Amino acid sequence: MRLAWIACLLSLTVAAGCARAEPPRPLLWKVSDADNSVYLLGSFHLLRKGDYPLAASTDLAFEDAESLVFELSPAEMNDPALGQLMGAAARRDDGKRLQDTVDADTWRRLEAWSARRDVPLENLQGFDAWFVSLTISLLEMQALGLDPQLGLDRHFARRATAAGKATQGLETGAQQIALFEGMDPALQQQSLEDVLLDAEKMEENINRLHDLWRRGDVDGMEAEANQRMRDEYPELYARINRDRNLAWLPVLSQRLDGGGKDEDVLVVVGALHLLGDDGLVQLMREAGYTVERL
């Protein structure tokens, strides 16, 4: 059973939730210098109604923050044009069909999946393999009842708007699209093969990751998701996770330093960006800031 591609999606755009009687222990850290604090909150981007209300510590971090930072700004996060741009970027312009770019076994698995989900193969033939991988994963997760409108990012974006709090994005939609568009063709085929192998056990895989998140199990999530992606897709892990963390670090440090302004910030990013030796929590600790788990 392989989870690397799911882990990739969790770190960028999607994640899952299962209803529980008690709120989860959030993946939440407080990073401080002499004047200001940055709260780092690990996000799941697709959730269920049963994942709310949130733990009190999460709400307190929101109340304390004067502004919020997301992977994408709320304006772009909610812009339907972003999905259209992603589809346009993934559309093939080399005269080949998807079938011409993957091996026979992968194509047979895709045929079986399309028949099971009643998705015409012709709808996929004109796109790159990375886009088809994302499409399959999103459709499978939505079949489990996961809703992007209930995701943690959108939840806090709506709350920030209602409270009149300023918001910022760490990157643009075009930058996120480029992460996938720049993938090597061999890696794209591997990702498609992986997600097709996982599709039949998607519910089991996602629920296991989500249970680790609900329990706030940092070590478990790191081993189950990040470490697997590092082992199976080292190039993809570097593009999707490590390199983006390093790019975000100076932005967050600048917000923490504040330029003499007293302002606390809540940062809501994919949970996997916070974990491991090259996660934002450890990077900010190494930068000399005080870091505590909440």
Overall 3D shape: globular
Query: Uncertain runs with pLDDT below 50, 5 residues or more?
Result: 1-5, 13-20
Q: What's the end-to-end separation, in Å?
A: 33 Å
Count of discrete domains: 1
Strand content: 5-15%
What count of helical segments does DSSP give? 13
Q: Please list the strands of the largest sheet in the order they lie side by side.
A: 4-3-5-2-1-6
Radius of gyration: 19 Å
Structural class: alpha/beta
* Helical content band: 40-55%
**What's the helix-strand series?**
HEEHEHHHHHEHHHHHEHE
Major beta sheet summary: 6 strands, mixed
Number of strands: 6
Overall mean pLDDT: 86
InterPro entries: TraB/PrgY/GumN_fam, YbaP-like
Keywords: Signal
Signal peptide: 1-21
Protein name: TraB/GumN family protein
Question: Helix and strand layout, with pairings?
Answer:
Layout: H1 4-12, E1 28-32, E2 37-43, H2 56-64, E3 67-70, H3 74-77, H4 81-90, H5 104-117, H6 129-143, H7 152-163, E4 166-169, H8 173-181, H9 185-199, H10 202-214, H11 218-232, H12 234-257, E5 265-270, H13 280-286, E6 290-293
Parallel strand pairs: 2-5, 3-4, 3-5
Antiparallel strand pairs: 1-2, 1-6
Description:
The protein has 294 residues and is an alpha/beta fold. It has 13 helices and six strands. Strands 4-3-5-2-1-6 form a six-stranded mixed beta sheet, sandwiched between helices. α4 (81-90) packs parallel to α8 (173-181), α5 (104-117) packs across α9 and α11 packs across α12 (234-257). The model is unreliable at 1-5 and 13-20 (pLDDT under 50). Residues 1-21 form the signal peptide. This is TraB/GumN family protein.
